[in-house]
Structures are given as C-alpha cells and as structure tokens.
C-alpha cells in the first residue's frame, strides 16, 4: 500500500471507532477485508489509528473536525508533514483538500491541554498538582516496550546478548534490577530465542519495579488472587523459591499461565474458588485488581474516551469487594498487596484508606504511585500488613 492509501484506511477505521466499534475490532475488520495489505501496511495503519486516539483533541483542532478524515488530516499536520502529499484524490487515497481544509490553522492549543475526558481532570489536578503536566504529556506519546529478565534462566547481560542474536536491541533500565528497554526490534520479541526459552517476558517497567519492592523470603506461600495471565506471579517467582498459587474470578484468563510458567521454569498451582480456603492462610496475597487502566491509556487510548463516572464507581465497588474477600486469607503478619495500573486517586489511595478504616487490624507498610513521566506506565502499589486479628 502507498502512504496515502494507508491514511485513507486509517481514516475509515477511525470512523468505525467513532461510531462505537472498539479500536481492535475496527482494525481487525479492516484487515480481514484488505487481503492485499501486508504486515507493514497493517502495522502502519494501526499506528496511525492509535496515534490519533492518543491525541484526538489535538488532531481535531488541527484537522477542523472529528471525522476520520479530519482527524487524520490533523495527525499529518501535527507531524509537520504536508497534507497535500496524502490527500491527493488518486486511487485509494483520500480526496483532495477542499476549500475549508485549506484555510489557515487556528492558534495551537496550550501545551498543557489534556487528552482526557474533562470530568477526570479535577481529581487528577488535586492529586498531582504541577506533577500532572508531564504525565499528560506522556499520555500523548507511544509507550516504550520493556522486558523482564527471568532470574532463574538468565542474567541481564546474557539476555541482552541472546536478544541481539535476533536483532533485538535491549538496554538496561535504571530503577529495576531485571528490566530491559527495547530500543529496536520489538516486533520480533515473541519469535526470539530468548523469549521462547523463558529468559525474558514482556512486562512494563513500573509493574516490574512494584513487584521488586515486595519483601520476599524462601518458603513463602504466595497467592496471586487476580492472576489473569500471571505476569506478576512470574515476576515474583523469578526472585524467590516459594509455593505459588494463582486464582482469577474468570478462570479463562489464566489459560496462558501454565505454559508461561513452564517456559519460565516455575511451578504455579491454579486454584478455583472452592480450593482457596484449603491452602490458606497465605504469607502474601497479591490483588492486582480490575481498574480503569488509566496508567496504560497510551497503550489503549480508545479506553480513555469510553470511560465514564459510572464505570469508575462500579470499579471502586469491585476493588473494595476484592480486598474484603482477600483479607481473611492473609496469615498474621502477612502482606496483602493491592495494585492497579491506574493514576486515579479514587482507585488507589482512597481504596487503601477505606480498607484500613474498615479493618483496624491492618496498616500500610508501604505505598507508591509510579508516574507515567518516569518512563513506565502509571502504576500504584500498596503493601498492607496484617498485625492483629480482625
């Protein structure tokens, strides 16, 4: 596909998204109908669509509207490229610019404007103050790709060497002992020998750093209560010899965990709800709860424009229920680790404070909000210690 045809394809996908289709579904539908599109074409169209969704307000401002065509016009202008090179009217390309589209641009928006729904801003401004601006700027950018080195199978240096054999350039990260930032070759990771051998896993820097801060000792019983694919279980398992258990309210989400654990050289016992009490109490219960994902919205920018106050209220109720269900399974002097990939204080500090108010036998041993501006995703973690029976 020519560059102008990719722009038209992206505009069509954006129109589907604006009509209500999830971004991934819109891209999949386009790809199925565009058998002529190669892998580079599909990647380019996807990049266009996600770049628009990350900065939809800027693109609308520069393109003069909120249609797929206008937003793609705005994206091209935001990159300093000439729209006339893409809006040619030739076969498969967008139609040429009309008179309105050729008018001088209005003044650019303030550099600190937010690519977020307006209703979220008061809470974020109250929580972060001046520190919010660099996070809003980070949300407009593509997220970097990070790998976690599996300490059971490789050192950071040996992993870098093995990745290089498959033309993947990875660099050590400050702030995490086993994290690598991928500088080139990210699309080849899943096929690389280092990945297939279990030396590395895809995992964001903030998530890795949060797991590295959890105090561990050999012989612990560790339950990942909202395990999903098990990435955080495997991160903990790379540090310590322990008994690992995983549970998820939707067991299908753990489908990939057994093969991932086998690849990593780790044994993880997956439990359904009826088995949890049999193995309790646990020295550590990790609750990486369902959340807004606001800390990851540069990876899934479509989600931020769909997020509502009603959805936030629903999520906070779910988060409270999970904490209440997990707490009785924690051994005395054990830890309940609460985590979200969120920037929103309602999902983070507020949930921890309300939990401790309901349960006076618990205290906050450690908490930290990882900001987007430090490179990784926005991520919150709190270590809650059970110091008395409640």
Task: Indicate the topology.
Elements: H1 3-18, H2 23-33, H3 39-54, H4 56-63, H5 68-78, H6 121-128, H7 132-139, E1 145-149, H8 156-164, E2 169-172, E3 179-184, H9 193-196, E4 200-202, H10 205-212, E5 221-224, H11 231-237, E6 243-246, H12 257-264, E7 268-270, H13 276-279, E8 282-288, H14 301-306, H15 309-326, E9 330-340, H16 349-358, E10 362-370, E11 379-386
Parallel strand pairs: 5-6, 5-8, 6-7, 8-9
Antiparallel strand pairs: 1-3, 1-4, 2-3, 9-11, 10-11
Helix pairs in contact: 1-2, 1-3, 1-5, 3-5, 4-5
Verbal overview:
The chain is α/β, with parallel strands linked by helices. The protein folds into 3 domains: 3-104, no CATH class; 145-205, Alpha-Beta Plaits, CATH 3.30.70.1170; 214-386, Rossmann fold (3-Layer(aba) Sandwich), CATH 3.40.50. The protein is built from 16 helices and 11 strands. The strands form 2 sheets. It has a 7-stranded mixed β-sheet, with helices on both faces. The chain has a 4-stranded antiparallel β-sheet with strand order 2-3-1-4. Helix 1 crosses helix 2, helix 1 crosses helix 3 (39-54) and helix 3 packs across helix 5. The longest helix is centred in the last third of the chain and has 18 residues, at 309-326. The mean pLDDT is 94.
Which structural traits does this protein have?
390 residues; alpha/beta; Rossmann fold; 3 domains; globular
Look at the structure and give the CATH class of the largest domain: Alpha Beta
CATH superfamily of the largest domain: Vaccinia Virus protein VP39
Please summarize the sheet with the most strands.
7 strands, mixed
Which spans of ≥5 residues are poorly predicted at pLDDT below 50? none
CATH architecture assignment of the largest domain: 3-Layer(aba) Sandwich
Structural class: alpha/beta
Total DSSP helices: 16
How confident overall, as mean pLDDT? 94
User: What's the number of structural domains?
Assistant: 3
Report, as a whole number of angstroms, the end-to-end distance: 64 Å
Radius of gyration over alpha carbons? 23 Å
Enumerate the strands of the largest sheet in spatial order, edge to edge or round the barrel.
7-6-5-8-9-11-10
| Residue share in β-strands | 15-25%
CATH topology value of the largest domain: Rossmann fold
* N-to-C series of helices and strands: HHHHHHHEHEEHEHEHEHEHEHHEHEE
- What best-fitting shape do the alpha-carbon axes yield? globular
Percent of residues in helical segments?
25-40%
Q: How many β-strand stretches?
A: 11
């Amino acid at each position: 596909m020519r560059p102008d045809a990719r722009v038209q394809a992206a505009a069509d996908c954006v129109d589907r998204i604006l009509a209500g289709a999830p971004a991934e579904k819109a891209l999949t539908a386009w790809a199925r109908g565009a058998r002529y599109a190669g892998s580079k074409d599909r990647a380019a169209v996807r990049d266009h669509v996600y770049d628009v969704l990350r900065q939809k307000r800027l693109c609308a401002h520069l393109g003069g509207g909120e249609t797929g065509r206008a937003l793609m016009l705005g994206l091209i202008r935001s990159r300093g490229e000439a729209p006339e090179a893409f809006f040619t009217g030739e076969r498969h390309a967008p139609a040429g610019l009309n008179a309105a589209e050729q008018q001088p641009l209005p003044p650019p928006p303030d550099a600190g404007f937010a690519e977020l729904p307006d209703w979220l801003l008061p809470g974020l401004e109250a929580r972060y103050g001046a520190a919010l601006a660099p996070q809003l700027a980070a949300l407009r950018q593509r997220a970097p790709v990070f790998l976690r080195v599996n300490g059971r199978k490789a050192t950071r240096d040996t992993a870098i060497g093995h990745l290089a054999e498959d033309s993947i350039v990875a660099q050590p990260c400050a702030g995490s002992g086993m994290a690598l930032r991928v500088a080139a070759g990210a699309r080849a990771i899943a096929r690389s020998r280092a990945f297939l051998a279990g030396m590395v896993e895809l995992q964001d820097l903030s998530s890795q750093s949060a797991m590295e801060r959890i105090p561990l000792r050999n012989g612990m019983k560790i339950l990942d209560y909202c395990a999903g694919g098990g990435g955080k279980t495997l991160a903990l398992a790379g540090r310590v010899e322990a008994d690992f258990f995983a549970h998820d309210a939707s067991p299908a989400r753990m489908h990939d965990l057994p093969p991932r654990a086998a690849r990593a050289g780790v044994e993880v016992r997956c439990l359904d709800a009826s088995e949890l009490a049999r193995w309790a109490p646990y020295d550590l219960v990790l609750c990486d709860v369902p959340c807004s994902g606001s800390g990851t919205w540069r990876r899934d920018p479509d989600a931020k424009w769909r997020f509502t106050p009603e959805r936030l209220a629903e999520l906070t109720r779910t988060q409270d229920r999970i904490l209440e269900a997990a707490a009785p399974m924690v051994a005395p002097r054990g830890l309940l680790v609460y985590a979200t990939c969120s920037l929103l204080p309602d999902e983070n500090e507020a949930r921890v404070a309300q939990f401790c108010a309901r349960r006076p036998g618990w205290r906050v041993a450690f908490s930290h909000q990882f900001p987007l501006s430090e490179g990784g995703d926005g991520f919150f973690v709190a270590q809650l210690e059970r110091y008395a029976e409640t």
